[in-house]
Design brief:
- With 341 residues, the protein is α/β, with parallel strands linked by helices.
- The chain has 10 helices and 7 strands.
- Helix 4 links the parallel strand 1 and strand 2.
- Helix 6 packs parallel to helix 7.
- The chain starts with 9 loop residues before the first helix and ends in a 9-residue tail after the last helix.
- It comes from Microthyrium microscopicum.
Length: 341
């Protein structure tokens, strides 16, 4: 999908034709429309309201175009060359792909014919066509580079990298042990650097690639009881943003696509230590299929994006720009989400 093919939003779709009919259609047509208006709404008032709605809609549309243009590194031909010679020519890496959201994403890509390599310390529960498992401790740089060479020898240089590996455990700052903190940051942050270092150089040479980063809504709002996890997700958001900048200004590879994922709580093993408190607090928990399908769709689109789940939370990135009292109210709303069992 090119950037110019973005569909107009609902305000434009509804207000533009109505405004045209009320101002450019024949008097007979205009009269038929007016006769359905409430008595306290004149034609002039409706035209004024529709005009403002059209302006707002066009403003939103321009904003969407600019966002898509910026996210695709200011390239007019926003779509990459993925799938041009058949999806079976593409190779994807999925870290933490043996279970949960990672496994669903791997299966979704494999169903499209993409060759998928799962990097995980645990073997998947079953074999799936187009999916190859590579045992890998992503917290070990040497192991990541060793497996990267094996992948390249087996399939060739990967064109898609999905950094999905992650762990979480509900506890307070004072309860976090040094051993757990090192493990958490190694898995959730440092491993993302290692895989990018291992696979990005080939993407730069080919001027083709898509790197997906698994962040979270916790990148913006850190719940009490998940402070260390939220810190890792803020870190990988910074990694994603910095990667975009370096692709443009250091590697001369703006063609490489980048997507960051911001889900709220997802029904996977990641929330096992605090799922009971999520039920008590009645927090929204979404299905992993919702996220995995969107990731697959975005890769098939061949464009960069910043995706929020649910979509209604896409304004979450504005939280840090709110007055401090508003930020605290938002954070207070998550106080009971992650109570340790």
């Amino acid at each position: 999908m090119s950037l110019t093919s973005l569909r107009p939003n609902a305000l434009v779709t509804i207000s533009a034709p109505l405004l045209y009919l009320l101002t450019r259609a024949s008097p007979a047509v205009q009269e038929k429309i007016v006769q359905y208006l409430p008595k306290n709404v004149s034609k002039a008032k409706l035209v004024k309201a529709l005009t403002w709605a059209l302006i707002a809609g066009l403003g939103g549309q321009v904003n969407s175009w600019l966002n898509a243009w910026a996210q695709n590194n200011w390239l007019f031909s926003g779509r990459s060359k993925f799938g041009e010679n058949g999806w079976d020519k593409e190779i994807a890496i999925v870290t933490g792909g043996s279970s949960g959201m990672g496994n669903l994403t791997a299966r979704g890509l494999a169903a499209k014919g993409i060759k998928v390599c799962i990097l995980d310390i645990i073997e998947p529960s079953e074999e799936v066509e187009n999916i190859q498992y590579f045992k890998c401790d992503v917290t070990s740089r040497d192991n990541v580079f060793e497996v990267a060479e094996a992948v390249k020898s087996f399939f060739g240089p990967p064109t898609i990298l999905i950094n999905n590996a992650g762990i979480a455990h509900a506890h307070t700052i004072l309860e976090a042990t040094p051993e757990y903190l090192h493990k958490l940051f190694d898995v959730n942050v440092i491993s993302y650097f290692y895989t990018i270092q291992a696979f990005l150089p080939d993407m730069i040479k080919a001027k083709k690639g898509h790197i997906v980063t698994m962040a979270s809504m916790a990148s913006y709002v850190g719940p009490a009881g998940l402070v260390d996890y939220a810190a890792t997700k803020s870190a990988v958001l910074s990694l994603h943003e910095g990667l975009i900048s370096e692709l443009k200004h250091r590697y001369n590879a703006p063609e490489i696509k980048t997507t960051v994922i911001h889900p709220i709580y997802v029904k996977t093993a990641l929330i096992d230590t605090f799922k009971s408190s999520l039920r008590t607090s009645k927090s929204l928990v979404i299905r992993p299929e919702t996220v995995s399908k969107a990731i697959v769709k975005q890769i098939l689109h061949g464009t960069s994006a910043q995706l929020y789940f649910p979509k209604s939370l896409r304004t979450g990135s504005l939280v840090r720009g709110f007055p401090h009292w508003v930020q605290e109210i938002v954070r207070d709303g998550t106080k009971n989400d992650a109570l340790s069992a």
